[in-house]
Specification:
The chain is mainly β. It has one helix spanning 18-33, and strands spanning 13-15, 37-41, 60-67, 73-79, 85-91, 105-110, 113-117. It has one domain. It contains one helix and seven strands. The strands form two sheets. It has a five-stranded antiparallel β-sheet with strand order 1-5-4-3-2, with helices on one face. A hairpin with a 5-residue loop joins strand 4 and strand 5 (85-91). The N and C termini lie far apart (35 Å).
Length: 121
């Protein structure tokens, strides 16, 4: 359950334009600055604190965020190179426990076929 601090962020919205991406980055930066969120970028150079300013945007934006109060998780993603869009999403905690033996890894056998393989296989 999200807390009062992050409740306004608990929604999903699409990013279709550069202006919408800049708005999402501004919202993320504001919430990082006031301590509501911490970020876990996919690459150290992809911190939202540095994106879009003097560095421009990476081809792929993919950053996970966590609420510092309740642990709620969020994700910002956008494909900027081809303009494919993306979005901001709230990732609620799983209500089911982790399966015995761990999660399932996915192994691609053929581009059109993905086989779930038990962890440790």
């Amino acid at each position: 359950m999200p807390c009062d601090r992050c409740r306004a962020l608990c929604l999903d919205w699409s990013i279709r334009t550069p202006g919408e991406l800049e708005h999402a980055l501004t919202v993320a930066r504001d919430n990082l600055s006031d301590g509501t969120l911490t970020e876990q970028p996919d690459h150290p150079d992809n911190s939202v604190l540095r994106m879009g300013q003097d560095r421009g945007w990476p081809d792929i934006v993919s950053v996970d965020f966590t609420c510092t109060t309740c642990g709620a998780r969020f994700h910002l993603s956008c494909e900027t190179y081809h303009g494919g869009g993306g979005g901001w999403s709230f990732r609620p905690r799983r209500s089911t426990p982790r399966p015995p033996g761990g999660y399932v890894r996915r192994r691609v056998i053929h581009p059109d076929f993905v086989l779930g393989v038990p962890a440790g296989a």
